[in-house]
What we know:
Layout: H1 2-9, H2 13-44, H3 48-51, E1 54-58, H4 60-63, E2 72-76, H5 82-92, H6 96-113, E3 123-137, H7 145-159, E4 166-179, E5 184-188, H8 195-203, E6 210-218, E7 221-222, H9 228-231, E8 232-235, H10 247-258, H11 263-277, H12 283-291, H13 301-309, H14 330-342, E9 348-352, H15 360-377, E10 380-384, H16 390-393, E11 398-403, E12 406-412, H17 416-422, H18 433-440, H19 462-471, H20 473-483, H21 505-522, H22 524-544, H23 554-573, H24 577-594, H25 600-609, H26 612-630, H27 636-664, H28 667-683, H29 700-703, H30 706-719, E13 727-728, E14 731-732, H31 733-740, H32 749-774, E15 783-786, H33 787-798, H34 805-820, E16 836-846, H35 849-853, E17 860-871, H36 887-895, E18 902-909, E19 912-913, H37 916-922, H38 938-949, H39 964-981
Parallel strand pairs: 3-15, 5-10, 5-11, 8-9, 9-10
Antiparallel strand pairs: 1-2, 3-4, 3-6, 6-7, 11-12, 13-14, 16-17, 16-18, 18-19
Amino acid sequence: xxxxxxxxxxxxxxxxxxxxxxxxxxxxxxxxxxxxxxxxxxxxxxxxxxxxxxxxxxxxxxxxxxxxxxxxxxxxxxxxxxxxxxxxxxxxxxxxxxxxxxxxxxxxxxxxxxxxxxxxxxxxxxxxxxxxxxxxxxxxxxxxxxxxxxxxxxxxxxxxxxxxxxxxxxxxxxxxxxxxxxxxxxxxxxxxxxxxxxxxxxxxxxxxxxxxxxxxxxxxxxxxxxxxxxxxxxxxxxxxxxxxxxxxxxxxxxxxxxxxxxxxxxxxxxxxxxxxxxxxxxxxxxxxxxxxxxxxxxxxxxxxxxxxxxxxxxxxxxxxxxxxxxxxxxxxxxxxxxxxxxxxxxxxxxxxxxxxxxxxxxxxxxxxxxxxxxxxxxxxxxxxxxxxxxxxxxxxxxxxxxxxxxxxxxxxxxxxxxxxxxxxxxxxxxxxxxxxxxxxxxxxxxxxxxxxxxxxxxxxxxxxxxxxxxxxxxxxxxxxxxxxxxxxxxxxxxxxxxxxxxxxxxxxxxxxxxxxxxxxxxxxxxxxxxxxxxxxxxxxxxxxxxxxxxxxxxxxxxxxxxxxxxxxxxxxxxxxxxxxxxxxxxxxxxxxxxxxxxxxxxxxxxxxxxxxxxxxxxxxxxxxxxxxxxxxxxxxxxxxxxxxxxxxxxxxxxxxxxxxxxxxxxxxxxxxxxxxxxxxxxxxxxxxxxxxxxxxxxxxxxxxxxxxxxxxxxxxxxxxxxxxxxxxxxxxxxxxxxxxxxxxxxxxxxxxxxxxxxxxxxxxxxxxxxxxxxxxxxxxxxxxxxxxxxxxxxxxxxxxxxxxxxxxxxxxxxxxxxxxxxxxxxxxxxxxxxxxxxxxxxxxxxxxxxxxxxxxxxxxxxxxxxxxxxxxxxxxxxxxxxxxxxxxxxxxxxxxxxxxxxxxxxxxxxxxxxxxxxxxxxxxxxxxxxxxxxxxxxxxxxxxxxxxxxxxxxxxxxxxxxxxxxxxxxxxxxxxxxxxxx
Length: 982
């Protein structure tokens, strides 16, 4: 027994080593857990402000060497570098669909574990009517000079109660519904049915000229009781961005201005309750939540997250670009528009046509993210799509179907087809539900879906569909919910925003200042070119007015006066570049203003402050180059006085250009008005027309021109110098020269001139702020409508409820008859078939500086690689690919639209090498970007294109509709014939 017991206590060497390894391994795990607990305890002892910014960050993925507790370090989440943020997002989101859902679920689990409720918003609208008041005009409803004058005079006709030709057009006609949280709602309807108007009405962003009736509320609060534009995020279908900024910078700026909302308060409450319950959170989730809950950061982790989710990480450091500057693709711009708004803390998303220009897979990915966000974070989302794919349609919970400004269906997606089958229309098996809903309300396509064989088909109008929905169980249930008012006491805390600008004024100012500095760097070529131009002009000026040819006498005094006036003109006109830069940025400003990202003063004051060093440099260069070479008074103090005056004048000039741009808003109007303003200032400046030569009733113009005070200050500074004090009769030479130009003022008027110029600068900057604040954006004038169009609309409304079943059948029969007729074989516009081939086409561009700054070492970036293909006549070819794959780039290269970069490869037309001048005459390229002249109508645009593109041999009679342009073509043929006869 003793041997047995001893044998049991004796261990083999292998067993001894194994047990020692297990004990050491368990000891190491215990030490790691203890170290983690000590680190968490150290974080918990920090003050609340620092505790929100401090977390445990896993350094393993950034260093690749440390593991366990040694790889976790206590960091300030606001000081994460670009590489650390990128690696962290790549770690938590590798597969977007799965990992993003897992991340959101972990966030929700952490919040629910400590019983913290997320804020929710329920949007209600009942009997909402939107009407547009239009001015009825004769002829075409164009903004002509006469129509504009009549529109202005209509204000006075209202005041004296005169009968004016006005008409009201209904856009929304008594729509009602509820957008519930945690449910993704799809807004369907044909174009011009009122989807955008409904979204704008719910977001509180409708134009003030539209009349809105009805009730719209968020959690029982009316739109005038809180800040709806900060509570909801309206995502427009138009992509307006600053072309000089990159994708990352655009989203970073949006994050910085929108703030974090209630994230910080929720995070503080979670941390407090976790501490009380002794819960240690996951380090990655804690880092992410804390990094996205701190406001005022110039670079945020939330930006990297949105870039990863929307698939914009590949173009994050590429400038956005526009029609004149190469940038990201159209689909990427659409995703950027979406990311710019969903990156904020808003709980209500109103998304208008977010799929335009996107492929179906990218649209599915974005809608999937929105669905996960809505379901897990209890957000509220209404998404308007035109033709969603079946898999995208299945992601939605509720459907709203609109037509002609009315709601035809508002209910669960799963009941949609069943509801319309009860109305007598059945969706075919192989047809998408979204396409069916779009076509079943169409007069032309409705008959094919009729499934009631026991009843004769007759067209069911939009009004009939609307009445059928109201009498259905879904409609009655919706009306019952709307009749019961929302209990405000159930509204979660911080679900609504009651402040227009949640950030402090200092934070908004710093954000706008940083962006303005960035834009100045991106537009450095403009400022460098203007400075180089100024230096070149200064060298020319000092050679013309050189001191060796000028003496201190009455004869050459006019030359000195002329050189001073030219200096004023040159410095005054050098700030004109600010006018065009301001005009190009105004659309983006008005977009941001509609979202209340920042006030007008936060945009205008940085623009004024950051131009001071530029004005300082311009004045120093001009004065230092020309002063002593021209031969002005040699006193050093007078050199500095001339510099100070030119500096003040340049500041007033740039402020004036910004003010003119903000008032007139368009490039044509601003440049025209700015040129006229400069001419008038030169005219009344005191040199071209002396003050005494002006008639008494025009002398007020002398005192309101900034050039006047520049002329007075420079003249007094020069001609009151000691060398001009030689007496001639009763006066000195200097006094005689000043008196001859009407500038005989005392010496202290120099300082009055400096003060006046600084006052002009302040006045123009104040006018710039007021214009941006109170003036409407361009294109928001009163709508015009012709009498003919108005009568057509009213006639359509009067006969809208008539039965059109027989007409539809007759139309179908006639179309069938036409389809059975043999084709004549004649072509209206004859053309010669051409085959286009391209082989091993390569396209390179210079690597953007933003990518080089982030470590991309190659000098050239290849966008197209070994592209080979053929386009044959009579065969329709589809160019497919995901957004950003290079479809537009390939078409630009083949069509010859690329003016930059390097193109390699062989492109042939009909077997011959492509010659761009000849190819342009036989090709037509429909670009993705819609660029048209805004001053002409659609019909005029098409006619003008026909005049330029169609050959002169085409007979005008071949056109289907008679138009006055045919008279022009016939007259042209007769004129050419007469020339050939003579």
